[in-house]
Amino acid sequence: PPTELKIVGEDGEELEAGLPGEICMKSVSAGRSYFRDEGATQNAWRDGWLYTGDIGYLDADGYLYLVDRKKDLIIVGGHNVSAPEVEAALLDHPRVAEAAVVGLDHPVMGEVPRAFVVCRGEAATPPEELQAFLEERLVSYKVPRTYTFMEELPRNALGKVLKRELRGQGASA
User: Fold this and answer.
1) Rounded-to-integer distance, Cα 56 and Cα 64, Å
2) Less Cβ around it within 10 Å: N or C end of the chain?
3) Phi and psi dihedrals of 43, rounded to 5?
4) CA-derived radius of gyration, the chain
């Protein structure tokens, strides 16, 4: 208190306990804005609620659980795919040193997963090998449709992978 939380679905309607959606918060403190970016401010603040861009859920006792970032959520034919889940599965492969997964625009499915992979050693792991490996671990709509092999993933000064740069590499399937 005095902060209120709610979880909303894609339609903006409040969700029941246990269902994941976007975390929204409201506080008696003064609202904030993005510096010189009115569009971003209007997108983040609606009817006094801050739409955080985080995905989470509230349990029956009102405890908040963070699940993902909205930008890291890939919507494949109506199914939610968590990029970190696919990345973790890729990292289980012995020849994968690093991985990042982003949504690639698709004319029918909306988006499909695209993987950016840094391999251990000199040679890239064949995409077919990664595909078969992931098909054993993930449901089919979570398996990346394309693989891009890189020497290193783009990172900011703090070492975080710059997924916005990866999203710009090949806008659609």
Assistant:
1) 7
2) N
3) -70, -35
4) 18
